[in-house]
Amino acid sequence: MRSVRARAALGATAVVAVALIGAGLSVLLVLRADLTGQAGLQAEVVAREVAGQLALDVPYDRLETRDEEDHPVQVTDEDGRVVAVSKDLEAISGTGTDRVVPDPSTGPGGPVGPDGRGDGDDDRDGDDDADDDDARHAPGRGEVDSDEPDFGNGTATVDGERADYRFASVRATTPAGATLTVHAGAPLAAEREAVGSVRTAMLAGLPVLLLVVAGVTWLVTRRALRPVEGIRREMAAITASEDLGRRVPEPASRDEIARLARTTNETLTALEASVERQRRFVADASHELRSPIASLRTQLEVAEAHPELLDLPGAVADTVRLQELAADLLLLARLDAGERPGRTTLDLGALVQGEAGRRTGDRIPPTVRVPETGTFEVSGSRGQLARVIGNLLDNAERHAERAVTVSVGRDRDGVAVTVTDDGAGVPPGERERIFERFVRLDDARTRDEGGAGLGLAIARDVAVRHGGRLTVGEAPGGGARFELWLPATG
C-alpha cells in the first residue's frame, strides 16, 4: 500500500477495531458477571428461606417456596438422598444429584425420628407413633449455616419447560440434628437475553463505526497532506526547470508540515548559493587560467616564428603560476569534497620556523618569535597546515612596507599563530570578504603581484576543517594582523 492516506486510515481503523473489541468483551464479561451475581443472590435468598423453614422443623411436604416455576428447589440429606423438591420439578442438573423424586426411606411427610428419617415400620403401635410425633414436634430450633453458599450453574425442567439456572446451596440443621442441603435456583434467562442483545448490538454497530473511522481518517489525512502534495509538485517543477530561485509554498500553520516547507526552502536557498558559488568559481578559475595559458601560448608561438625573441624567464614564470593555480584549485576541490585532514601530531612552532626559514631570499624576510619553553603540538595534516602558514606569509610580504612578524603562543586550550605586517591593513568592512575565493581588494595590483585571490580562502577552509579558525584584525602599529588558532593536543 503506497498511499500514506490508505495506510493511516487502515492503521487507525485497526487500532479502533482492537480497542472496540477489547472494550466490548470487557463490557460483556462485566455484564454477565453482574447479572449472574444477581441471579445467585436471588437463589441464595430462596435457599435461605427454605433452610430457615427446615431449621424450624417444618415438615418436608409443607415447605413453602416463592415462584416455584422461577425458583426450583431440591433438598438433600447428608448422604445425597433427595428428601424434598419443589412442585412440578421434573428434571434437574448441577446440584450434585439429578433425582427429583424424594427417597422413600426419608419418609413422605418429613422426619419422624431423631435422625430425620422414617423407619418404614408399619407394625409399630399407636404409642410408638405418639412418641415419635411428640419427638418430632418437641420444642427446639435448628440453625442455618451462615457461611457463603456454594454456587453453580445447571438446568431444570419445571412443568415441561427446560431452562438454565444459577443454583445456590445452603446447609441447614434440623432440631433433630439432621443436616440438610437446600439447592435453590434462579433463572439465567435475563442474563442470556441481556448479553445476547448487547453482543448483537455491538456486532451490528462495529462495522458501521469502523467505516466512519476509516472515512474520517482518510479525509483528515488527505487534508493534512495536501500541503505536502503542493511541496512535492513544486519540487518536481524545480527539478524539471532547474530554476533554483523558486520556492515551495509555506502553509500558514505552525505544524510539522510548515516546518518541513521552511526547511525545504532553506535547503533550496543553500543549494542555490552553492550552485552560484560553483558557477562563479568555475568562471573565475577559467578567467584566471586563461591569462597564463594565453601568455604562454603567445610566447611559444613567437618563439616558433622567431626563436631569438623567446622570453624564456617569462615562459617559466607563466608555467610556475599556472602550476600553482592548478594546485590551489585541486586543493579547493578536495576541501569542497569533504576530504578529512590527517591526524598527525606535529609541533606548530617548528612548522612555523621551518616555513619562515625558507624565505630568507624574500623581499622582506619574516621575523619569527617562538618561545623556547612550552609545547605547541596540534593534530592535523602537515602539508595543509604548512600551506596555511605559507599563504599567510605570502600575503603579509605582499602588503608589508618594511616588516613581517610571526609569533607562536598558547591561547587557552589551543595554539595561536599571529602574522602581522606594517602595510595599509584591511578595512573593517572588507575583513570577511577577503576570505572569499578570487577576491583581490587592490584592483590596481597586477595579477603577477597579487595572485589569483585563493590563498586566504584556502587558509580559512583548512583552518576550519582542522577545528580551528582564521581571523583578521588591525596590528598594534597599523597594518594587518592575521591570527590562526588551532586546538592543542597536549
Description:
With 490 residues, this protein is an alpha+beta fold. The protein folds into three domains: 21-193, no CATH class; 256-324 and 327-336, Helix Hairpins, CATH 1.10.287; 341-487, Histidine kinase-like ATPase, C-terminal domain (Heat Shock Protein 90). It contains nine helices and 14 strands. The strands form three sheets. Strands 1, 2, 3, 4, 5, 6 and 7 form a seven-stranded antiparallel sheet that branches. The chain has a five-stranded mixed sheet with strand order 9-11-12-14-13. The chain has a two-stranded antiparallel ribbon with strand order 8-10. A hairpin with a 2-residue loop joins strand 11 (404-411) and strand 12. The longest helix has 53 residues, at 189-241.
Give the oligomeric state of the chains in this entry, treating copies of one chain as homo and distinct chains as hetero. single chain
Structural class: alpha+beta
Principal-axes shape call: rod-shaped
Strand content: 15-25%
Largest sheet: 7 strands, antiparallel
Q: What Rg, in angstroms, do the CA atoms define?
A: 54 Å
Q: What average pLDDT do the residues reach? A: 83
Helix content: 40-55%
Low-confidence stretches: 109-139, 443-449
Number of extended strands = 14
Question: What is the chain-wise order of helices and strands?
Answer: HEEEHEEEEHHHEHEEHEEHHEE
Task: Put the structure in a nutshell.
With 490 residues, the chain is α+β, with helices and mostly antiparallel strands. It has nine helices and 14 strands.
